Amino acid sequence: MSGPAAGTASAATTTDVVCLGESMVAFLPSQPGRLADVPSFGRGVGGAESNVACALAAAGHRAAWVGRVGTDGFGDHLVETITGYGVDTSAVRRDPARPTGVYFRTAADRGTGAHEVAYYRAGSAASAMSPDTVPYDALFAGRVLHLSGITAALSAGCLELLRELTAPRPGRPLVSFDVNHRPRLWRGADASVLLDLARRCDLVFVGEDEAKEAWGIGGAAAIRAALPEPSVLVVKRGSAGVTVFARPAEGPAPAAAAAAHTPADGPGATAAPDVVTAVPALRVDVVAAVGAGDAFAAGFLSATLRGLPVRDRARHGHLMAAAALTVPGDLTVPPARGHADRLAALDDEAWERLRLGPGWTAADRAPEEVRTP
After folding, report:
1. Is 294 a catalytic residue?
2. Domains and CATH numbers, the chain
3. From 294, 330, 348, 364, the catalytic residue
4. Which H, E and C letters describe 115-177, residue by residue?
């Protein structure tokens, strides 16, 4: 069996973040309504991990996406589109025996009962990912390796792969994990495995709603009690914002040390006391409630790589999420770094007054032009 060798990440790495996961061709409706009634669809790309890679690349970071697609036209479209965002796709593998996954969705908000998604991903090329079918040298070539719980649900081989990648070992990159619990993928399966995987990671993103549904755990403090090992835990609380639990030893960020990161903790380890930081969400005029979670992770990772303090990491996450929420699709051009830095540096009162709408990311928009209530 192939697998990661200790010490494969080094200070000489040239990639900031490597993202592993399935990307699919997304068919987006031409008008609102039931899937049965929508007459035509536009084509895009969808995938939590590739979304993060694209957002990071658009924000000026060196990002790579690793996955598997078929040797079909849909696979060509995915690789070409993601590459077009500036993402390194050189480690993507093509599977001649399995197709690229696709899905269709309605225009309704994901949080409403009217929202429909039809996935055609069973037996996809990505579901064949395993420790034997992915290039470990590419996965461990960055300062950060970003994973998602979606991958764990695709197949036994994918779950085995995530267990390998999250196993503590000297020299591994900082491992970022977005729980991304998808109930449909876990029907008849035990989603507690996501808790076990998260406990082996360094930076974890999880929503309060996800933790309640997947593990029966409610409230940010209880989630931290169940996940004491990660150095940084980001609990997403919807419109209330996020609560970040961070070890004091983390300091501003593990930016310089990420390439040579060695996890000091494993399940059962004693954790140092946390610094707890609550950061309110922004007021946003939502165009489409898709892609916000992936965008938040990208913004938080971007600020982490830059060595920003915890509050600003969370604020950059909120700003990147606002960029995604104010456009129709999953992906968007993020605000210019200087623009985002100015907004992230606002005092608490000014931050809570912000209201962002479509077009707010334009480079020529000054902070004072952003609409406030």
Report:
1. yes
2. 23-141 (3.40.1190.20)
3. 294
4. CCEEEECCCCCHHHCCCCCCCHHHHCCEEEEEEEHHHHCCCHHHHHHHHHHHCCCCCCCEEEE
